[in-house]
Amino acid sequence: MELNGLRVSRETQARLQHFAVLFQKWAKAINLVAPSTLDDLWRRHIADSSQIFQIYPEPVRWVDLGSGGGFPGVITAIFLAELQDGWVHLVESNRKKAAFLRTALRETNARGSVHAIRIEDAPAEIGECDAISARALADLDGLIGYAAPWMLGKENCRGFFHKGRDYLREIDEARGRWEFDLLEHKSAVEQESVILEISNLRRLV
C-alpha cells in the first residue's frame, strides 16, 4: 500500500484500516469531521494527515492540538507504532471526541495518549515536546499562540500546521506578532494547500 508515494507496511496498513472502520462507526453518533467529507475519508483525512509523518519521520515527542477526529494525531501515532518509539500527546477538550481518540489509540496499538483538557492548560500537564501539529483548528497566528509555550526559546521544537489556499494572508498576519523560520511543504493531496513548518519562534509584541 502507498500513501502519497510513501510505502506503507502491512502492519501499518492494517492499523490504518482498523482506524477507518472505527472512525466511520463513531462518526454516525458524534460529529468527528464535516459530514460532506466522510465519503472521501482516506484521501481528505487519512492520506492528508499522513503527510506530517512523511515530512518529519522521527521518533519524537509530539503534541497534537485540537485532535478532534484524530487528524493528524492518531495517524502520526499509528506510524510511530512501527518505529516502536516516539509518542503523541493528543489534546482534545470535547469528552466524546476524547473517548473516540482513546478507543482508536488502544485498538490500533498506536503510540499516543489523550488529554481531555483545554489547549491553554496543556503545557503544564504535558511538559516539553519536540514537535506540534494541528489541522483545521485556527488561523496561523492563533496556532502559534497556542504553540508558543512549547516553542519559545526552543530551537529544536517545530510546528507543523495544515493550511488551505489563504495561507499567504495568514503568514503575513502572523508575522505582525511573531518572528519565525518557515518552510512551505506543498500538499500531495490538496492542490492549493500546504503544510507550514515553523521553527525558531520569537515574539515581536
Q: Which band does the percent of strand residues land in?
A: 15-25%
Measured between the Cα atoms of the first and last residue, the distance is: 47 Å
The radius of gyration computed from the alpha-carbon positions, rounded to a whole number of angstroms, is: 16 Å
Strand order of the largest sheet: 5-4-3-6-7-9-8
Structural class designation = alpha/beta
Q: Report the mean per-residue pLDDT as an integer.
A: 93
Low-confidence stretches: none
In N-to-C order, the SSE pattern is EEHHEHEHEHEHEHEE
Helix content: 40-55%
Counting DSSP H or I runs of 4 or more residues, the number of helices is 7
Query: Overall 3D geometry?
Result: globular
Tell me the number of strands: 9
The largest sheet is:
7 strands, mixed
Protein name: 16S rRNA (Guanine(527)-N(7))-methyltransferase RsmG
Keywords: Methyltransferase, Transferase
EC number: 2.1.1.170
Organism: Rhizobium mulingense
List keywords for this structure.
205 residues, alpha/beta, 7-stranded mixed sheet, two-stranded antiparallel sheet, 40% helix, globular, transferase, 16S rRNA (Guanine(527)-N(7))-methyltransferase RsmG
How would you sum up this structure, described in words?
This protein is an alpha/beta fold and 205 residues long. 40% of the residues lie in helices and 23% in strands. It has helices at 10-27, 41-55, 73-83, 95-108, 122-126, 140-151, 167-174; strands spanning 2-3, 6-7, 61-65, 87-91, 112-115, 131-134, 158-163, 178-186, 194-203. The strands form two sheets. The chain has a seven-stranded mixed beta sheet with strand order 5-4-3-6-7-9-8, with helices on both faces. Helix 1 (10-27) packs antiparallel against helix 3, helix 1 packs antiparallel against helix 4 (95-108) and helix 2 packs across helix 3. The longest helix has 18 residues, at 10-27. The model has no long low-confidence stretch (mean pLDDT 93). It is an enzyme of class 2 (transferase). Its EC number is 2.1.1.170. This is 16S rRNA (Guanine(527)-N(7))-methyltransferase RsmG. Keywords: Methyltransferase, Transferase.
